[in-house]
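discrete fold record:
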Amino acid sequence: MENEKKHDDNDHGKKEVTIIVNTREKKWSEKEISYKQVVILAFDVFSEDENVVYTVTFTRGEESRHEGSLVKGESVKVKEGMIFNVTQTNKS
């Protein structure tokens, strides 16, 4: 998958943080995380099916954006202990 997080031993200087995605701890070493990357951490896949809708919300973010939601194409700065909730809905 193109946007899956890959850990590279040569990533010197990148600080790894622990984030919570749907109550599960995940390690992340990038400064930002995208809508699609959060969905993949939550469900292991990202469906491109137009009938599948993901809702991504977060809390405990950076001061400039402490809480909110992400939509397709957006990203947010990551902070230690940040919490993401991701739900999947199928349109009928």
User: Anything to note?
Assistant: The mean pLDDT is 88.
